[in-house]
Amino acid sequence: MNDTITVTGVVATDPRHVLTAEGLSATSFRLITTNTVYDVDADAWQSTQCNWFTVSAYRQLASNVAGCVSRGDPVLVTGRLTVREWSDGDDPISRGITAEIEADAIGHDLAWGSATFARTVQGVRAVDVPSATAV
Fold first, then answer.
1. Where are the alpha helices (DSSP H) in 1-135?
2. What is the CATH architecture of 2-128?
3. What angle do CA 127, 131, 135 make, to 5 degrees?
4. Closest CA to 96 of 105, 84, 104, 108
């Protein structure tokens, strides 16, 4: 399966940023999503199911994510979903299914807080670039 989806969740691991030998910037992290329902009898919100995704970002998006996203941040991720089976040999216990998202866009979920935007120019934040009107 390879479909485009949008997911809201919480960054569950510290983002891991690497620069490949070819100079490609890559950042990945684990994302957890939860479904919650209100339990009238308990008079409280209850989590019903958690889904885990591995999110990967490349190039400029990867650099921006590495500098802006931290473990525990609520985020929205849009990208291509790939679900695949994996195994570590013939042992049936060492098998599973993983859901991966190759991100096209990642942003903070503003339903839970506020953010400030700073445009990047070729890997440099716009606030670090001198203004053309500055003397």
1. 59-68
2. Beta Barrel (2.40)
3. 135
4. 84
**How does pLDDT run across 78-122, given as a tens digit for each residue?**
999 999 888 887 777 788 888 999 999 999 999 999 988 888 876
Residue 11 to residue 103: CA distance in whole angstroms: 14
Matching residue, tokens 């650099």 = 63
pLDDT in tens, 25-58: 999 999 999 888 888 888 888 878 889 999 999 9
Burial degree of 4 (CB within 10 A; 0-12, 13-18, 19+) = exposed
So where are the chain's domains? Answer: 2-128
Q: What's the pLDDT at 129?
A: 46
pTM of the model: 0.77
Strands (E), 12-117: 16-19, 25-39, 44-58, 74-87, 95-108
User: What's residue 122's pLDDT?
Assistant: 65
Query: Rounded to whole angstroms, how far apart are CA atoms 130 and 135?
Result: 10
